[in-house]
Amino acid sequence: MDARGLLSDGFGRVRSIVHAAVEGLTAEQLEYRPDPQANSIAWLIWHLVRVQDDHIADVAGTEQVWTSAGWAKRFGLPFDESAIGYGQSSEEVAQVRGLTPDLLGGYADAVLDATESYLGTVTADDLDRVVDEGWDPPVTLAVRLVSVLSDDLQHVGQASYLRGLVLRRSS
């Protein structure tokens, strides 16, 4: 398997875990926070997908699915359309409300489809291309893609853990 296949497999795993984390939950369950400073499943999934959408669109030179396909309007969140969740306060996390598994999963699928499409164009030589000079050392495409995948897996793991807490509370 080449690097592109490995990345594709990793992002495919994110897709299945996102769906498993939200499937069958109510809006109230998606909004559950174990304490007032904690993130909810809804916020974690929205955030991980927003970051992926933002970062992949940037390296691909395309518009984000969030705006180009109308997801921002469907979500109706009280944030600027450019918000991806970084640096949000606990009060802002609490504003991610009224979402459904279908909405979260649909946006995740759309972004993961865009990611897969982009990965289909990436060559081995592309992976060494510097995509962000703002770091020392500068960030290559390979590092950016692995960083996004790592962030996705961490947050979807957190959402899965919260799902377990939510379901135990409900039984």
Instruction: Please outline the major beta sheet.
Output: 2 strands, antiparallel
Tally of contiguous helical segments: 8
Order of helices and strands: HHHHHHHEEH
| Number of strand segments | 2
Taking Cα atoms only, what radius of gyration do you get, to the nearest Å? 16 Å
CATH class category label:
Mainly Alpha
Total separate domains: 1
Hey, roughly how much beta strand do the residues contain? Answer: under 5%
CATH-level-4 superfamily name: dinb family like domain
Cα(first) to Cα(last) distance is 43 Å
What does this structure look like?
By secondary structure, this protein is an all-alpha fold. It has a single domain (3-170), classed as dinb family like domain (Four Helix Bundle (Hemerythrin (Met), subunit A)). The protein has 8 helices and 2 strands. Strands 1-2 form a two-stranded antiparallel ribbon. A hairpin with a 6-residue loop joins strand 1 (130-132) and strand 2. The longest helix has 30 residues, at 141-170. The chain is globular, with a radius of gyration of 16 Å. It starts with a helix and ends with a helix.
